Amino acid sequence: MKNFEIGAIVLGLVAGTVQAEPVQWAVADGGNGHWYEGVSAPGITWENASILADALGGYLCTVPNEQENLWVFKNVASDPSLWNTWFGPFIGGYQDYEADDYSEPAGGWTWVTGETWGYTSWTPGDPSNTGSQDHLAYGGTSSNHIQPKWNDIEDPEAGGYVIEWDHDPSITQWRIEDGGNGHWYEGVRIGFYPESPGASWDWCKEQAELAGGYLATITSYEEDEWVKATIIVPMEPKNLEAGPQIGGQLIDGQWQWITGEPWDYEAWCGPEPSGDGDRLEYWRWGSLCWNDRLDTWDLSMNTYVIEYTTLPGSALGACCLDGLCITTAAADCSGNSGSWGGPDSSCADFDCPENCPADLDGDGIVKVQDLLILIASWGVCP
């Protein structure tokens, strides 16, 4: 995948964009189980669309075969709100000027995921390379404006972009490369208080475990801030009293996490814990700080946060991560910049290359360029 400078772009949907709900191409329907979402953003550049898709845990959609191309077009990309003049949404194809097969206009095209570039669906006369047309978008013709065909276009002519996820986008990973723990989190909303009755803390705990996880344990300031910003705020709990339930409990006079992790971090509201409860929740009246409550206070418990150590429902396989091999799901592996060996692969059969600290440019070879990088960084570390 290309690397781009973020610059002044805000990692979040820019003002004026409109998103639909993600839809899944179900395996039962002959699909790949992935999720797709169209975002209307007239005038956005391909690079910024790619950055935003990545920030949401996905990537610009790839359609490397006819079946996926037609399904994505029919169910997502044909939405008129994603089209601008003759061009539809950006997808994850671009022309790599450094590729061995690069030539104009049809050489060097690749998918952001590295999938094989074989199938194409160009409109007649494309790719045309008029100007700097090195990014891929859906595009029609004068006789048929919206159709499942592609155009090579120049920024910023597209009407939006399509995001693809290889996992349920409602479950978000706190990536190790972003300072996280590699775990996954999901905000669950039971209903709206007071229209919908809630459930007890114990019921929320049981549902989290049935889903393959547990009520989230917030063991550091960094995790607290990430969960609030990424999971709780977008969930918008409409509760008049309580916020989401999390996995803390008062046992024998001591607050404990349900996982047995050390209780080293606290984020209580003002005078809390006040002693009127033995379960832990975020409190909506404060700045999403913590409150102790009784499990019998059911009616306002309408939201909770699940934490998963591994993405639920995923096939497991060998993952090379920093020279070590672990068994995990594909999304866990790629989310932490690892190399996955495929479903049911074993570390015994997966030869992970050893981590090489001297390979500063990450190309697998220690050479003069690595020495130049070291010399350029010589001096006191910031």
Description:
The protein is α+β, with helices and mostly antiparallel strands and 382 residues long. It has three domains: 18-165, Mannose-Binding Protein A, subunit A (Mannose-Binding Protein A, Chain A, Roll), CATH 3.10.100.10; 171-308, Roll (Mannose-Binding Protein A, Chain A), CATH 3.10.100.10; 316-376, no CATH class. Helix content is 16%, strand content 25%. It is built from six helices and 20 strands. The chain has helices at residues 46-55, 66-77, 201-210, 221-235, 330-335, 368-376; strands spanning 18-19, 23-24, 35-40, 59-60, 87-95, 109-111, 135-139, 150-153, 160-165, 171-173, 184-189, 214-215, 242-251, 254-257, 279-283, 289-293, 303-308, 316-321, 324-329, 339-340. The strands form four sheets. Strands 1, 2, 3, 4, 5, 6, 7, 8 and 9 form a nine-stranded mixed beta sheet that branches. Strand 18 (316-321) and strand 19 (324-329) form a beta hairpin. The radius of gyration is 24 Å and the shape is globular. Mean pLDDT is 81; it is low at 1-16.
CATH names the topology of the largest domain as Mannose-Binding Protein A, Chain A
Low-confidence stretches are 1-16
Write down the domain tally: 3
The name of the CATH superfamily of the largest domain reads Mannose-Binding Protein A, subunit A
Alpha-beta classification: alpha+beta
Give the helix/strand layout.
Elements: E1 18-19, E2 23-24, E3 35-40, H1 46-55, E4 59-60, H2 66-77, E5 87-95, E6 109-111, E7 135-139, E8 150-153, E9 160-165, E10 171-173, E11 184-189, H3 201-210, E12 214-215, H4 221-235, E13 242-251, E14 254-257, E15 279-283, E16 289-293, E17 303-308, E18 316-321, E19 324-329, H5 330-335, E20 339-340, H6 368-376
Parallel strand pairs: 5-9
Antiparallel strand pairs: 1-3, 2-3, 3-9, 4-9, 5-6, 5-7, 7-8, 10-11, 11-17, 12-17, 13-14, 13-15, 15-16, 18-19, 18-20
